């Protein structure tokens, strides 16, 4: 099951949920979770690949998508803004250093 970690953009103040770990929603719904998160290109590609490969691509994507999405948030300037324990877990699972750490909101 995916771990939810809050992410905050320091310049805009926007917060989003980052996810790390296995994506059950991607497994069951293919590219639709990506579409709902605003990741249009990946969502459409996953839907097409899932149809073409009879669902095999959806199984593979379930292992990879949450890490991809949260890494894209970090590349877009978002920083971890959850409890220190969750921030540490997310950093370890994503393989990122402490440069992406924001002060805890709690």
Radius of gyration: 14 Å
Measured as a percent range, the helix fraction is 40-55%
The tally of domains stands at 1
Q: Measure the end-to-end span.
A: 23 Å
* Biggest sheet, spatial arrangement of strands: 2-1-3
Number of helices: 5
Q: What form results from the Cα inertia axes?
A: globular
Total beta strands:
3
Question: How does this structure look, described?
Answer:
This protein is an alpha+beta fold. It has one domain. The chain is built from 5 helices and 3 strands, in the order ββααααβα. It has helices at about 25-30, 30-35, 40-50, 55-75, 85-95, and strands spanning about 5-10, 15-20, 80. A 3-stranded antiparallel β-sheet has the order 2-1-3. Strand 1 (about 5-10) and strand 2 (about 15-20) form a beta hairpin. Helix 3 packs antiparallel against helix 4. The model has no long low-confidence stretch (mean pLDDT about 90).
Task: Describe the secondary structure blueprint for this structure.
Blueprint: E1 3-8, E2 15-20, H1 24-29, H2 32-36, H3 40-52, H4 56-75, E3 79-80, H5 84-94
Antiparallel strand pairs: 1-2, 1-3
Helix pairs in contact: 3-4
Concise account of the structure shown:
With 106 residues, this protein is an alpha+beta fold. 52% of the residues lie in helices and 13% in strands.
Which tags fit this structure?
alpha+beta; three-stranded antiparallel β-sheet; 5 helices; 13% strand; 106 residues
């Amino acid at each position: 099951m995916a771990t939810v970690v809050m992410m905050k953009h320091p310049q805009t103040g926007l917060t989003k949920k980052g996810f790390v770990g296995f994506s059950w929603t991607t497994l069951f719904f293919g590219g639709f979770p990506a579409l709902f998160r605003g990741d249009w290109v990946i969502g459409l590609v996953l839907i097409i690949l899932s149809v073409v490969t009879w669902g095999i691509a959806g199984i593979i994507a379930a292992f990879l998508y949450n890490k991809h999405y949260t890494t894209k948030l970090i590349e877009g300037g978002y920083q971890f803004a959850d409890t220190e324990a969750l921030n540490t877990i997310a950093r370890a699972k994503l393989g990122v250093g402490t440069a992406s750490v924001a002060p805890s909101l709690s």
